[in-house]
Amino acid sequence: MSNTLITFCGDDALRLYVPDRATRFTRARQLEASGYWAEVVPGRRDITVQFDPHAHTPDEAMQILTSALRAPLQHGQETAQTVTIPVQFGGEEGPALASIAANLNLTEGEVVARLVEHPLEVDMLGFTPGFAYMSGLTDDLEIPRLAQPRQQVPGGSIGLITGQCGLYALPGPGGWPIIGRTALSLFDGRAEQPFRLQPGMRVTLVDAGSP
Amino acid sequence: MALANRLVENKSEATAIEITFGGAALRFNTPVSFAVTGALSDLTLNGVTIQPHTTHTAHEGDELQMATAAHGCRIYLALSAVLDAKRFLGSSSTYLPAALGGHEGRALMAGDRITLDSVRLVPAQATPEDLHPVSSNSYTLRAVEGPDFSRGSEQIWAEIYTATQRASRMGIELRGMFPVTEQVENRPSSAIWPGALQLPPGGNGFLLLADAQTTGGYPHILQVARADRHLLGQIRPGDRVRFLHRTQSQAVDALRAKQALLANWLPEFTL
For A103-119, what is each residue's pLDDT tens digit? Predict the structure, then answer.
């Protein structure tokens, strides 16, 4: 693998471009398992790893990453775990659904139909604790982020922008228009893995109907 | 916080109390030693002036008062005891947006009582003079190019920026002339972390602090060097900020030099 795929990312991190989803997850697990990196954070096109600058110079870290990439990837036959999430779309739970539908010249039901017809895939967790970025939607529904992010979005909220859904595991600030909410608990503070959704999982959204 | 904990013989990362801008009063219901570091504010114990960066011992009923800090943003109070605080993912820090950790996941309010465990009394010590952080309203931070730095970004090294009122533990907004960057709609998000300078479309920069979000899609054009990231939490609205251009290896050399300065006084602390 050539060096051109890796760049410095500040003075204590490196970024590796891995546009292919499956390769990205396998590679991220491999780097994590090595125990060498302080952080391994998959993005939507890349993986960022943080190294210990007290122990290694940036050039040494670059060499270590380059040689780690020579190790063959174990593309497992693992099947992705699927989670079904019942969602109350629209209304108080999803205040932006009506305006999104109106802007697209669709009914609210037609927008919801697009979300539930195929399973989505969790690309990454990030932003605030447990926020899940999910892909699997086509890009033809153009939905911009909010011009002014909201200070507080309730936990369980589902946001929608072009091509992506986002699930807020916990309450927090957010810039995605909110189209629904799930009552399913996505967070358990005492569990070793406190967030139910993990990168690589498949998510089926189900219309839970009116409350 | 590490300096405050050191004065009461705690580990560097022991739970301490962070006070933003000062203006706080605390009553001790049990004898305990304490130390105050961070942003400089006038301190009194029962009305008598006391010094920061020094260990003090309070008696039952004593009252510690902190005036509003003249410079800096965050004051640290460490106690020679174990503070009762909720832990999340191995940390007792309070994360306000999701109400995690600390005291019920929120900022302390008048009337709150903090339970202390394993209270000890410790001998008086003082932070060595050369390790007192310089208190100022202008910051010169060493920084390296971020992943979205481009040839047009060079002016960032020449400008002096001003911190605005938009400030929290997640980040602080900087006003000034920023390079024009290509704004990509729904740009693929990548990892970001404290010390990152992001350029949202609004034209101002956003410097990320300790409670930074972990991923983001705005251009990340500069990264404050790890050696100077411990200064970021003291920048307050109105302060001036300049960035000094460093290469990756210069930044790591600076980190190791600063770590070596701390080694005697804070042997188990890592920058």
Answer: 999 999 999 999 999 99
- The answer on A120 and A183 residing in a single domain is yes
Residues 6+ apart with CB under 8 A from B36: B4, B43, B52, B53, B64, B66, B75, B76, B77
Nearest to A173 among B88, B97, B195 (CB): B97
Answer yes or no: are the C-beta atoms of A49 and A40 closer than 8 Å.
Answer: yes
Give the contacts of A187 (CB within 8 A, at least 6 positions apart): A129, A130, A155, A169, A170, A194, A195, A196
User: Which residues have CB under 8 Å from A163's CB, separation 6+?
Assistant: A135, A137, A138, A139, A141, B186
How much is the pLDDT for B115? 96
Read off the pLDDT of residues A161-187 as tens digits, 9 standing for 90 and up.
Answer: 988 899 999 888 788 999 999 999 888
Put simply, the answer to whether A171 touches B97 (Cβ < 8 Å) is yes
Number of domains in chain A: 2
Query: Residue A12: is its pLDDT beyond 90?
Result: yes
Single out the residue of B4, B6, B1, B82 nearest to residue B263, CA to CA.
Answer: B6
The boundaries of the domain holding residue B194 are 138-262
What does the alpha-carbon distance between residue A81 and residue A101 come to, in Å, rounded to a whole number? 31
Q: What is the mean pLDDT of chain B?
A: 94
The CA distance from A170 to B89, in Å, is 15
Sign, Cα dihedral of B168, B7, B113, B105: positive
Q: What is the pTM of this model?
A: 0.89
Last-in-domain residue among B88, B116, B131 = B131
Residue A158 belongs to what domain range?
A: 82-207
Percent of chain A with pLDDT over 70: 95
E strand residue ranges, chain A? 6-8, 13-17, 39-42, 46-50, 82-89, 120-126, 131-135, 150-153, 157-161, 164-167, 172-174, 178-181, 202-207
pLDDT at residue B242 is higher than 90: yes
Q: Are residues B61 and B111 in the same domain?
A: yes
| Shortest alpha-carbon distance between residue A149 and chain B (Å) | 12
What is the phi/psi pair of residue B54, to 5°? -140, 145
Task: Give me A117's structure tokens.
Answer: 């017809």
Question: Cβ contacts (< 8 Å) between A10 and chain B: which residues?
Answer: 144, 146, 195-196, 223, 225-226, 248
Residue A118 lies in a domain: yes
Q: Is the ipTM of this complex over 0.95?
A: no
Looking at the structure, tell me whether residues B119 and B144 fall in a common domain.
no
